[in-house]
Structure formats: C-alpha cells, structure tokens
Design brief:
The chain has 336 residues and is mainly beta. Helices cover 8% and strands 41% of the residues. The protein starts with 17 loop residues before the first strand and ends in a 5-residue tail after the last strand.
Length: 336
C-alpha cells in the first residue's frame, strides 16, 4: 500500500518493485500530475518499492516539461562574468553602460567607466571634454635635477638649445650645457665644425694658437688631463714669439706663482720633448744652470715650469708639485 495517503488514492495500482520518480505539481491544497508545456516549481516523489511496501520522499526540483531547463535562480548559478536575469545567465554589460564607455564585470556586477578623453556619467553617457591638468611645478626645485620648470611643466631644458647635430646637451641642476661632439670643435651654441683626424694637433689646418691660464692648482699630470678634458693641450712653445705671449699672459694675472707647460724628459732621459705634440724642443728659454734635475727631491725634476723666480723663464720641477698651468687651444680662422 502507499505510505503517503495524501498524495495518492488507496485504489492506485502499486508499481512493481524498484525505484520510481513521479513529478507532481501542487495546486492549492491538492497535487496533480504536471502535463502543461511550461516551466514551474514541482515536487518530485521518489518511490522505493519492494513487494507491496513503498517508501516515498518528496524532493523540490525545477523541471521544464516539453522545453529546455532554466539556467539559473541566482547569480551563484552563473559564471562570475554573468548575472542571472529572467532565469538566464547574461552579460550585464549589454544593458548597464551607455555611449563612450567601457564596462567590466567583477563577481557578477558590472562596472562602467568613461573612455579616455571622455567624462561624465558612464551610466547615462560620456561626452568628449577637455581635461585641465594640474600644474607639475612652480619652480625648478619642484622637478628632478635633469628637468626644468617650463610653462609649469617639468620639461627637458635641452630642447632647441644647442646648435645642430654636432653638439651634445647635458643637464646639471636644471641648467642645460652644450658641448661639441667628439671629432668636432667650436662654439656649440653657434656651430661645431669637424676637427682633423683624432690625435692631430693643431686640430684643423690654418688654426691660430691661443694660450689660456688655468688658475687651478694640480700636479703636472693633473694639468695635462685638465687641458685635454677641456678640448686643449698643456702648452707647447715653438718659438720666441709664443714664449713671450705666455709670459705676458702670466704677468697680467698679477700672481706670484709658477705655471706648468707640457715639456718633460721622462720618456727620453735628458732629451726634452713637448708631450702634447711628441715633438722635441726646437726653441728653449731655460733659466741659468737649468735644467739640473735636482736629486734631493724624491723622483727628481722632470717637468717644465714657467718659473716665477726668474721672470717666467723655464725651470725643471718635480712633477708632483701643485701649480697653476697654461693650456693651449686653437681657434679656426675664418676663410675669406
């Protein structure tokens, strides 16, 4: 006999032994078998029959008779990129955002934003508008040291400062500095012109030698490097006229000090040469009894100085002494 008399009449013929599933719909206070081709909530009666004894269990299920099953009852029944709408898993972005927007779904929820260059309410629509940026700076101190505050923006100050593609620009503490590229010389703010092949001195034909005093005390090696790093060489003297030009330049400083030239006998013993050119002396202006290579100092005396004690005639001096120096540069002569 049936164990649930509310659901089935006693005259119902018992099914044979086995497992039976009977879908039914509850309407009002009675239960009837579902026969319509629509979707609704139903109870499923599970019958386990053995002989004349049947045990029933009621299971709540969603069955769509004569059609396909519904996809969802809640968002949890869909992927995280979908939302349960009208019992279907759908892309919520299709209806959420309006024009000129982008949409992303996160955990079933659509998020709308205006496209770059647009502003407004993304749910009602975004318009193309000009965005006013906040100023980056008021002074150079608001920018990194390799940038300068230009029109309230931190910009590269090298732009359009140096002349032509033969120059290089460097920024130090917000200020641009121009130099001629390797193989070129001249005024980088005007124009840098090709030099003679590397190592040539003078750097270009027809150039005129110019002497410049460097009022930084270094040893002889430091003086040579200083002149070289500034596009020149430690001074050489080829004749009487050049020697007098050096002396006159030193006198005009009013300093009571000696200055380095590029002469040395390090390489060839007692044979003095100009290290800036590699040429031997063809003119000399040694002070009396010089050079004497005085041995009382460690390392002896192997470098030439314009000696203040003898009105800037030449003397050999220990190369590690700290003194001023004379550099030489060449200025290109304009062709007429």
């Amino acid at each position: 006999m049936w164990t649930n008399q509310e659901h089935f009449q006693p005259t119902t013929v018992l099914p044979p032994a086995g497992l039976w599933i009977v879908p039914v719909q509850k309407e009002s206070s009675s239960w009837t078998t579902k026969t319509k081709h629509t979707t609704m909530r139903t109870s499923v009666v599970v019958l386990v029959c053995l002989g004349i004894l049947c045990i029933s269990a009621c299971v709540l299920a969603q069955i769509k008779l004569g059609s396909t099953l519904n996809q969802c009852f809640s968002n949890e029944d869909c992927t995280s990129q979908q939302t349960c709408m009208n019992l279907k898993c759908k892309d919520p972005c299709l209806e959420a955002c309006n024009g000129n927007t982008v949409c992303q779904v996160r955990n079933h929820v659509p998020f709308c934003a205006c496209k770059p260059g647009f502003s407004g309410d993304p749910f009602s629509g975004c318009d193309q508008r000009r965005v006013t940026l906040e100023p980056q700076c008021e002074t150079n101190d608001d920018c990194p040291q390799y940038r300068a505050c230009i029109n309230r923006k931190c910009e590269d100050p090298c732009y359009d400062v140096c002349s032509g593609n033969t120059t290089t620009c460097h920024v130090r503490n917000h200020i641009p500095y121009c130099t001629c590229r390797k193989g070129f010389s001249g005024d980088p703010s005007i124009a840098c012109k090709p030099q003679n092949p590397p190592g040539s001195w003078p750097p270009y034909p027809g150039a005129r030698k110019r002497f410049q005093l460097e009022l930084i005390k270094t040893n002889w090696f430091g003086a040579f490097a200083h002149c070289l790093n500034h596009g020149g060489r430690l001074a050489t003297v080829a004749n009487y006229e050049e020697n007098e030009r050096v002396k006159e330049a030193i006198r005009k400083t009013g300093l009571k000090a000696s200055f380095w030239g590029s002469g040395t006998d390090y390489a060839l013993g007692n044979h003095w040469t100009w290290v800036s050119t590699g040429l031997p002396f063809t003119f000399t202006d040694w002070s009396n009894n010089q050079p004497d290579n005085w041995q009382n100092l460690p390392g002896g005396e192997h470098c030439l100085e314009f000696w203040e004690e003898t009105q800037y005639r030449w003397n050999d001096r220990n190369c590690l002494e700290q003194q001023y120096s004379v550099c030489e540069y060449y200025d290109e002569v304009e062709q007429k």
